[in-house]
Amino acid sequence: MSILEEAGRHQERLIRLRRDIHRHPELSWKETRTQGVICRELDELGIPYEKVCGTGVIAVLRGERSGPVVGLRADMDALPITEKGKAEYSSENQGVMHACGHDCHVAMLLVAARILKAHENELCGTIKLIFQPAEEVIEGAHAMYTLPQLADVEQIFGAHVWIDLPVGMISAEVGPRMASADNIYLTVEGKSAHGAQPHQSADAIVAACAIVNALQTVVSRTVDPLEPIVVTIGTIAGGTSSNIIANEVKLSGTVRSFQPAVRDAVERRLEQIACTTAQAYGTTCRFEYRRCTPATINEAASTEIARKAVKTLFGDSALAHLKETTGGEDFAWFLERIPGCYVFVGARNEETGKCWPHHHECFDVDERALVNGAAVLAQVGLDAGMERSVQK
User: Is 92 a catalytic residue?
Assistant: First the structure.
């Protein structure tokens, strides 16, 4: 029986697990019930595990043959969104929703663990199953990637159900797949005065508006036009009354890029533009650039393992090209230290209305994607150990 057939036999379990977690979504660092579901399943399988980072779990499956240590990762947390879908498994936690598919990821990895346990005697080396909290706030992977329990992991893989790909299609591609996601915080300080006497002021609002416009020149005049980058100011707050010139304005925004060198250059240039523009308007600017997650960059050898796994399971025609996205993903922290590949599993079905974007209040997936994702993770787990053993 093929791995795909084995995953198909677990379809009912996959759907039950996913829907149970979907009904009971939990925000970042609060995934205690989800952790309990994971531990219950691992206990049933007799797979040893350790609770880490509060709500995270790392389980270990050791093969009978020696070989490398391979990590398989799933994220666990939900979003602060009120679900508007009408499915019978809709969220029962008001204001919290699995609107990105992390419920699917947990179910997929748990069933992959079940399949790999059944093939324990075929495994070369060790599989570490990594259930990671707090991806949505871009903190969980950063907290986990340097844990001593993961220090021996030689290769790592993750999978994300993806609504922009039709169900049945899978993307595993070399190079940047998701952007670095950084935040910027600015405080413009001026001098207040009566709104009717602006010559006595240093208007922080006027300066802040000029800074917002000037920052966009980083995109148009600093970075190669063929190199994707996003600079977005998302919040601006200042002033207390319509007839008082503000002496302080606070702004925040996000910066996205794919290349580390571009990220470094943009950080320096944004601060330079913000501070000198503020100075030109007689104000000052305090600037903070906060790095949240690097770009998600798939390593070539790991990606080839994932692509071979997809071909084994579904044939060459299932491999899809997916353009990189400027969305961020904290799996990138693992890829900073460990060679690996992040795979996108198609979950779109327009005929059944499963086509709302990620983070939308009506988000849902074609649950056939669960079988496909679990099969990919299990096949990669089997193949990676064998491939690395051969390479050594």
Answer: no
